[in-house]
Amino acid sequence: MKRSMLASLLALVGFNTFAAEGTQFDWGYAKQTAPAQWGKIKPEYQACEGVNQAPINIDQTISATLPALKLNYSSKADTIINNNRTVQINFAEGSTLELEHKVFHLKQFHLHSPSENTIKGKSFAIEMHLVHATEQGELAVVAVMFEEGQENKKLKKLWKELPKKAGNTVQLKHQDLAAAFLPEKLDYYRFNGSLTTPPCSEGVRWIVLKDIQQASKQQIQTFSSLMEHPNNRPVQPTNARLVLE
């Protein structure tokens, strides 16, 4: 991948800091810029109409001997950003995921409500996407689902520091290690897909953890009200892809 293309891709998926003020998006989640229109907005988004798009409904799966996830999450959360499309937490360098003999570096996680992927038709209140990239720009996303239940202590500290104004970036006071946001059990579903926002680039390795986390009704509402709109892309056709578990 050419360096200029890689830089553009990383910026689009949020690896670079968003502008503090005046961040503009030509795509959204409603009306003329809704997900169904993304592929028509401009040529760079044509992949949004591809055949290996994410998210999907995880239903028909194939049993496989999947390797245990090799996660080395030792770095700390650094900044939190509200860009009016999601809330994103950036991490310092040092956390990695080893997958298919490649090292993916954790860059950030961001949130969607309701969930983007569904499991056997079930949608969840929040979905966390932990986004990783190799030095060459290959991408892997680890997804964690949250359903309504008990207050989530892992999110409680972050919620106190949520930027209320779109475009704002806050230096986190509670710099939890990346590992703090992982569930105890790391069993997962595995499929190949895409980014779930423009440019919808395909070739993204998806890992959806089976261990469902909980967040309180108030925590869910706090995030939802901050976004002022659902920020989930609808599920896309699975087509001929295999989903392994």
UniProtKB/TrEMBL annotation:
Reaction(s) catalysed by this chain's protein: hydrogencarbonate + H(+) = CO2 + H2O
Keyword field: Lyase, Metal-binding, Signal, Zinc
Residue intervals of the Alpha-carbonic anhydrase domain: 25-245
Keyword Protein biosynthesis: no
UniProt cofactor(s): Zn(2+)
CDD domains attached to this UniProt entry: alpha_CA_prokaryotic_like
Stated name of the protein: Carbonic anhydrase
Source organism (scientific name): Acinetobacter terrae
